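Hi X.,

You mentioned you wanted examples for the new student's onboarding notes, showing what a folding record looks like when two proteins sit in one file. Here is a clean example. The first protein comes first, with its sequence line followed by its structure tokens.
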Amino acid sequence: MEASFSDTQYGQILAGLVRRVQAISTAKGFHFTVKPESVQVDPANPFTVNEADCPWFLIEPDLGGQRQWLPANQAEDTFPVLITGRLIAAGTDPFRKMGLAFNAYGDLEKALTHEPTSPFYPAAASLEMTMGGVAIDIRCQPIEPPPIPGFGDDQNVFVLMKVDVHYIRSYGSP
């Protein structure tokens, strides 16, 4: 029997994050457009991704989760997720790589904390960090090292963002 990706809250959270990153589009006010097939959760080497697939994002569970026990067999968990992004900074502007990296951080935070199906997306009025009730909070933090731009003619820019998703669940129902 094959398990569904969303059989657990972990899977529902990952699916919600994937859906939100896939919704990034210049038509919606972001700095770049992400192709749905360029967002994945299965481990991959970002250095071997075809440039035509960029911007490309890997969304995967990370280390450092926490649990707080609550009454009535409830647990409040923090599910840490690492988002690795590879973008291409075409052009000759000497500030394009770091500019793209910082715009990527901002776009990721905006996309992850807003519901893409909202008619106001991504306006502040649509701020929604529960992913339809799966989570109680989403926190985004660019992590060290800082953005990793390519040297010289290398157009690659790599960004890493840690996302902590807080949710409450029944113990025994991950």
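Then the second protein repeats the pattern, sequence line and then tokens:
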Amino acid sequence: MNRRRYPVGAELVGGRVHVRVWAPKRSNIEVVAGGPDGRASTLSAEGNGYFSGVAEHLRAGSAYGFRLDGSDRIYPDPASRYQPDGPHGPSQVVDPKSFGWTDATWRGVPDSGRVVYELHLGTFTAAGTLESARAELPELAALGINVIELMPLADFTGAFGWGYDGVCLFAPCRLYGRPDELRAFVDSAHALGVAVILDVVYNHFGPAGNYLAEFSDHYFTDRYTNEWGDAINFDGEASAPVREFFISNARYWIDEFHFDGLRLDATQSIGDSSSTHVIAEIAEAVRQAAGTRRTYLVAENEPQHARLARSPEQGGFGLDALWNDDFHHTAMVALTGHNPAYYSDHQGTPQELISALRWGYLFQGQRYEWQKKARGSPALDLQAKHFVTYIQNHDQIANSARGQRLHELTSPGRLRAVTALMLLAPPTPMLFQGQEFAASAPFLFFADQESELARVVRTGRADFLKQFPAIASSADLDLLADPGARSTFEVCKLDFRERTTHAPAYRLHQDLLRLRREDPAFAQERSDALYGAVLGPEALLLRISCPTGDRLLLMNLGRDLQLSPAPEPLLAPPDERGWHLLWSSEDPLYGGHGTPVPEPGLNWSVPGHALLVLAPAGDDT
């Protein structure tokens, strides 16, 4: 018999279905075809809690489940590859070789020039399916997107949700399509030069449809606290099979679906005191599964631990990049003028923006008043490529009363300027779906749960948002969308006609991504080539040094600024040449009001609510 590919689950091996499960809590495991009255076969006990055997009555496409110790109830496979009726229903045998891949020459995530696009499949298109999302891939590629980050796909209960309450980690969510449709999405993206990474949740399981405790009491631990549920047991008694389960899951997405990497959710809640952290083992498993393909591993880490993005040789976990909430927070304060709740330690000053783009995290061990403790660790050695910057993402848009997009919260000029700052600065930029055309659709928190759990979720969401004083009044809380209402989910769907009706915003993003891609100064993405200075209370300059010609970015979020004199060496023209205007956020093509031709030889005039890009005179790259 040929060897299995993964430690657990139902696999086609040598033409037959081999089933293996870890269930140390049980003494007898039967594989049952279809429902409770289906044909059954008993698995053999291997020891160490494992049971396995060939299920002669199963084939590709067969529905099956487990009968535990002779009970009447049939449970889904903890490592099910597909749940056609959701987490409460039977599992299905999947043949991963049934799909014909065409990406043999694909080399993976680009070494440089990455532009990430976060996408929620249920709301990205009206249909909310993989097939309909696949049809939009050419437009995303033409825009300049080369890394798509899919929000979690592990199957969860209900008819809609964000995906962070997944319970079937190996089963692509049936709401979006079948496993082969996910393979087709990735294959088509690769054909267009677009990598696809998957957001995975390895810190908790969802509250409904999780049957792991029926198989073992060792999946979870009380050694660590977790705000979303029971913490995963990565380092306690009988933790080896648990670690293997998650590490295999990471390898599975890369191997069987050709994903180009992972985004690891809330890594601060993955507790592990082992000599080698499970995150480091996940990173190694992903690299091995990808072979010669380049992968991209990104972490969300609220405490801002730089170690995750250092190599194992440097004592790190070997990930590629970290989400930079500090940039988001200071940019939001600069854009809106408000800094409540977790924004309260950010002032939105020019210096904060410069430092976030040059050094990554703003808090690298200093006291964080909002949390009444130190936050972060030194990260001065990390480069721009180690940070992902954004001004919108799923969490931050939804963490408001109405899930409003940024264009509804600030002035058009300010938003154009900060968008340009993010898209032209060295760190890797990320857009959230629809941001590129100023989508009118909000992005709210939605989760379809059973009645009592739905009430708990609704109350919990309202309690979370009470940290914002503007929302905390009872009147405002009454306006919060019900997470369990179908209408809350439906209103978040994008309308792609807005690429045309909101053409100035779309053109802005197209041109900025082209400039980032084609201009040699921006394309180099080097933080050590970035120099910055504060020009005024709401104005800054960035100078990006480049052998072929430096670039100046002048951004002013306040009133028109006249610098006369201008005793700032970063304004000095290169090689005694003058500067000329290369690009302006106030171009009428983007809905701006035009830009007076700067005359830096006489004085420096920086218009308000704008960002200007200057190049050496005669350089029209």
